Amino acid sequence: MQWLSVCSLLVLLSVLSRSQAQNQICTIFTEAKEDGFKSLILVGLAQNLPDSTLGDLVPLIAEALAMGVKCCSDTPPEDCERDVADLFQSAVCSSETLVEKNDLKMCCEKTAAERTHCFVDHKAKIPRDLSLKAELPAADQCEDFKKDHKAFVGRFIFKFSKSNPMLPPHVVLAIAKGYGKVLTTCCGEAEAQTCFDTKKATFQHAVAKRVAELKSLCIVHKKYGDRVVKAKKLVQYSQKMPQASFQEMGGMVDKIVATVAPCCSGDMVTCMKERKTLVDEVCADESVLSRAAGLSACCKEDAVHRGSCVEAMKPDPKPDGLSEHYDVHADIAAVCQTFTKTPDLAMGKLVYEISVRHPESSQQVILRFAKEAEQALLQCCDMEDHAECVKTALAGSDVDKKITDETDYYKKMCAAEAAVSDDSFEKSMMVYYTRIMPQASFDQLHMVSETVHDVLHACCKDEPGHFVLPCAEEKLTDAIDATCDDYDPSSINPHIAHCCNQSYSMRRHCILAIQPDTEFTPPELDASSFHMGPELCTKDSKDLLLSGKKLLYGVVRHKTTITEDHLKTISTKYHTMKEKCCAAEDQAACFTEEAPKLVSESAELVKV
């Protein structure tokens, strides 16, 4: 059984050896160091064996540690060079208890690649939970944390890994590290609970953001393939490392794209081997490191965390002498020559040149311009007067203007969000999205309106002005990706289905262009559609917001073109009723009498 825990590393790591002939376990043990080694093993075991307890895994981790030492000895066992995935699966399948406990009998009846695919599919079906539920108040968590920091973090890794089996291990460990920082900060303060509640909410948001980014990338890869993923990553990393040349960036992006398919499928062996190759080669390139300060700093991190550091790093300063704007027309002859022979290379160069100059842009704005430029080159490059043809074709398309216009749009959204209360803005988003997709359920539209509010609130606060565009559009696009993937768009309405099938960079613009759906036939509007009673007298702001959104959802569905004035009238009547009945001696009787009146008056306004 000792190999069970050693080989759980298949699901792990950004520290796996490139060469199958190497002593993999020793490579891992040496690079991750003892604590990192144990943490990575714990992630792999917990993600693959979610019905096992932490107590089941502790002895296996201890055995793995002992084997790590043996593999790094002068006479390592032969198994140190065997394929890690095969070893892991064989070890699991040799234990009837583990097979039964984790429902792996069907997988263990298979062999070779079929068995690996079965293990991956099994892991993909494990339910996920990002909630980070706190079982103990801050004071008790602090006591446990101070008593044994490593044991506390280990328990967190175990629980979070079980609930999130498809997250890459480096992401799980980065999240665990972040949670440890929250406790380190708050446990030293007098008001530990207040500190914990505040910082945990911020931390939870950061976790949700990172997971949304990963989920979106996988959705984009599944729907649009390597080409769009490569374009996205070329923009992202050219913005982060403008000192790197196009050739250097192209090689780096190719390696990044190679990790996407295995990482999204749950094949963490291949995923982490590819990540290891990528990070090793990038961090070994002294020429790039000497020019890319952010990358250089990340490469000094330990092997477990440097990949996450690279993903999170901020843009480096632009190189001296770089022009402020990129003019595609300046060398159109060479551009067309390259485009005619190798279109993707020409488009990659164009995307790179724009991206290094515009870290303040979103990926989507640059890709929208690139799509227009590609159409112009397709139309013009075979023509004798290709230069004039391209100028004409792109006459109304200026990337700098696109960036400015989109930035201004989000600044206006930020101003609108700041001008009203959080609840009012979220309700306005509920009204907007109910108008264009009244067929969607309340839960769907509640989630969409909440997400839009959260994105704008975070980006307007954290990235004011200059960088609000990449922050907001990236996150909103992630949300659109998830919505189009989680629900059948055709079950909502043909407009949403059409937008979900648009090109990647155009989906958000397509949705913004949808007009209120006037063809939807709603159910009758009557008092039974709403439940308004003494529960509205609660002081819980979330419950009150939910109730207000339900009323708006019900009313707007019945007339998607209802005016803002009529909505204000209904809202005012709702608050008047609430104040009256919450002050009444018999609240229930008051609501029973007043709620139907409100619904009836709302129904009359809907008819206008």
Query: How far do the termini sit from each other?
Result: 74 Å
Helix content range: over 70%
Whole-number mean pLDDT:
87
Going by CATH, the architecture of the largest domain would be: Orthogonal Bundle
Total number of domains: 5
* CATH fold field value of the largest domain: Serum Albumin, Chain A, Domain 1
Q: Quick one: how many beta strands? A: 0
Can you identify the CATH class of the largest domain? Mainly Alpha
Radius of gyration: 28 Å
How many DSSP H or I helices? 30
Please summarize the sheet with the most strands. none
> What's the helix-strand series?
HHHHHHHHHHHHHHHHHHHHHHHHHHHHHH
**C-alpha geometry:** globular
Q: Which band does the percent of strand residues land in?
A: under 5%
Description of the structure:
- The protein is mainly α and 608 residues long.
- It folds into five domains: 26-125, Serum Albumin, Chain A, Domain 1, CATH 1.10.246; 217-312, Orthogonal Bundle (Serum Albumin, Chain A, Domain 1); 328-397, Orthogonal Bundle (Serum Albumin, Chain A, Domain 1), CATH 1.10.246; 409-513, Serum Albumin, Chain A, Domain 1 (Orthogonal Bundle); 534-606, Serum Albumin, Chain A, Domain 1 (Orthogonal Bundle).
- The protein has 30 helices and no strands.
- The protein has helices spanning 2-7, 24-48, 54-71, 84-93, 96-101, 105-108, 112-124, 138-147, 149-163, 169-186, 192-224, 226-240, 246-265, 268-284, 286-289, 293-298, 306-312, 332-341, 343-357, 363-380, 386-393, 399-419, 422-436, 442-462, 468-486, 494-500, 507-512, 541-558, 564-583, 587-607.
- This is V-rel avian reticuloendotheliosis viral oncogene homolog.
